[in-house]
Amino acid sequence: MAQNLGARQTNAGVDYISSFRKLTVFEEPGERVIALATAGNLATSQAVTSIVSERLGARKGEDSIYTSKTMFNVAQIVGRALRQVIDEHGEHVRESGGDPTATFILGGQIKDRAPRLFLIYAAGNFIEASAETPFLQIGENKYGKPILDRTISYDMPIERAVTASLVSFDSTMRSNLSVGPPIDLITILAGEQRVERHASIEENDAYFTELRKTYGDGIVSLFETLPDPDISNWPPGPSC
Questions:
Q1: What is the pTM of this model?
Q2: Which of 159, 164, 191, 219 has its CA 20 to 30 A from that of 234?
Q3: Residues 191-224: pLDDT tens digits?
């Protein structure tokens, strides 16, 4: 499961907020499907996505995502493109007070191989999801991660995974004004190498609105049932 905590919103301060697409899908139905989600410096992530799409997206050559034999090779391609962009522009961005780094989540499947999911760091190196670590996050993740830690399992139904992801997004949006909808969400069926569903969830989406209310009300109700501590048994504080 991949989650890009940042949806499509980016900002340069609370008085200037814009929305940019942060999910790109490369698809040859039945042959391969590759999804690339981004977080971090917008110029860096857009440049890397353009390199992968235009130069490395050709249907020939060793560095093409369409001719790569494995998802591991695709992760290497994205990592090299990320290093190249940061090497070329990073120093100038830092001189102007910016942070040139970006991170990516890369997921998908190539025919006759297992689905794989990677988190690619700014240095171009990466880690892979596994049964023990079934989800990866980029962007603003500290507010939503506890939800996923408690709910996500490797073999859970996709509908439950989507629910957990959206609750995680909602928790993040409540605590960080720079994160907001629309949320790009895709599901990919293993063995079919194609996108099964691709949704763009807006603020007024009926299901998302119901989910936020139900979860919020449930948290309040659950909190009311929690036992209070017997503070009379706690040791007294130090005397002044």
A1: 0.83
A2: 219
A3: 999 999 898 998 889 999 999 999 999 999 999 9
